[in-house]
Amino acid sequence: MSGDTREMYVDPLKGAGAVTIEVPLLEETLRDAKALTEGQKWSEQEGLQIIFVNGLYYLRGERQLQQVPGWPDGLGSEVQRLTTELIDMQSKYAVMKFRAFTLDQAKQVLEFNVVGLEGENRLSAWRLQKFREDEELLRAELGRLKEENEQLRQRLALFEGQIEVPRPRPGFVRRLIAWLRR
User: Fold this and answer.
1) Is there a domain that residue 158 lies in?
2) pTM for the complete prediction?
């Protein structure tokens, strides 16, 4: 490692993109990979990503080891241990980077949903305000009609004693019904 830590602080999702690939495998190899992911309690997608990334970094590490000129045996085992540790960390980083990418996408969808719900909420508040205004107008109209009704009742009471309402003669209704039935 060069000792330069600037790369650690770079946005891990910068330039990230997901790619779907199709790779022919032996059924036995896929079965072994699925068994390993189930044993680690990983989802199938997560497990296959980890296996792919681990394999990639393992092969990279092996290639780099082959390029080291004439090293002593003790150093080789230490390099092997450190390479294994580096591969493990890089594979975990790759999975976390992918998870961060998918979570970022989910966050964008949720932000879009929140904007839509806020707009719907504003519209609902506006409609509620209109309903309240209509309710106030109807209450005012109802009050006006009640007053008018009361005034008409009072005027009718003044004339009630002066107007005689004609009443039908006894038996008139029976005779009328009998006549209509003929």
Assistant:
1) no
2) 0.39
